[in-house]
Amino acid sequence: MKKLVTTTVEGAVLVMTIDRAEARNAVNRAVSQQLAEALGRLENDDALAAGVITGAGGNFSAGMDLKAFPIEGIPLVGDRGFCGLTRAQLRKPVVAAVEGWALGGGFEIALACDLIVCGESARFGLPEVTRGLVPAEGGALRLPQRLPYHIAMETLLTGAPITAATAARFGLVNRVVTDGESLLAALDLAHRIARNAPMALAALKQVQQVCGGMDGPAAFAEQDVIVAPLPASRDAEEGARAFAEQRPPVWRGQ
Questions:
Q1: Which of 20, 92, 190, 239 is surrounded by the fewest CB atoms within 10 Å?
Q2: Which of 43, 99, 128, 245 is catalytic?
């Protein structure tokens, strides 16, 4: 099978590139499966602490391949969703590096990431309603959590894209950079994340996954269960010792 998702390792960061530029990186079943496999590698390799997802050829992803849809259907990967990401609960942080178009499922991939960096000319859209569909892999659920309700609903109900400037104004993206620089900016963030304790990173992600949308005593109760092992961990001991000795910590993930 042709490699439609390529991977490179940059220190403790796995860069995953959707490499189907001739189709604006549209996702067919092969792309979905290969990205899921790359994410599995990120999760299972202890030498990797964070990931970056990007697209080749100046676009992030045009979303689901509508030409393949009548034959392949929606390219979900088990209970992990589109590309093995949109319904997954990953332990390790992932940054989206967006250039050009992030449409439909492509936008949903970015929304499923923990941080988003984009170029100045990037465009984000969920045009499913114009094709008789609904963005059911996170778009309809996540966008109103990330944007003001009425802005999100305009985007969902009209199918019209939003610009990088609009995304930045409403806090949808972490950085807007010069076109062509999004991968470098995403790698900078990913490397800064990767320097931190892996157990703490995983716990922070789990708190968001479990407690997101909750409030009050119930949220604190769920959070406390998740973070309870950390103070007694070897990494917490190492963090304190490294601070006292004024040196970088050496994490063991224990």
A1: 239
A2: 128
128 is catalytic: yes
SS3 string, 89-100, reads: CCCCCEEEEECC
* Residue 245 appears among annotated catalytic residues: no
In angstroms, the CA 128 to CA 157 distance is: 9
Q: Which residues contact 232 (CB under 8 A, 6 or more apart)?
A: none
pTM: 0.95
Rg from Cα positions in the chain? 19
Contact 97, 138 (CB under 8 A): no
Tens digits of per-residue pLDDT, 143-168? 999 999 999 999 999 999 999 999 99
Give the distance between the most distant pair of CA atoms in the chain: 61
Distances (CA, A) of 235 to 13, 61, 198, 253: 20, 38, 9, 6
Q: Which two tokens stand for residue 74?
A: 């929606």
- H or E segment at 53? strand 50-55
pLDDT at 1: 62
**202: Cβ–Cβ under 8 A, 6 or more apart, which residues?**
91, 92
Please tell me the total number of residues recorded for the chain in this structure. Answer: 254
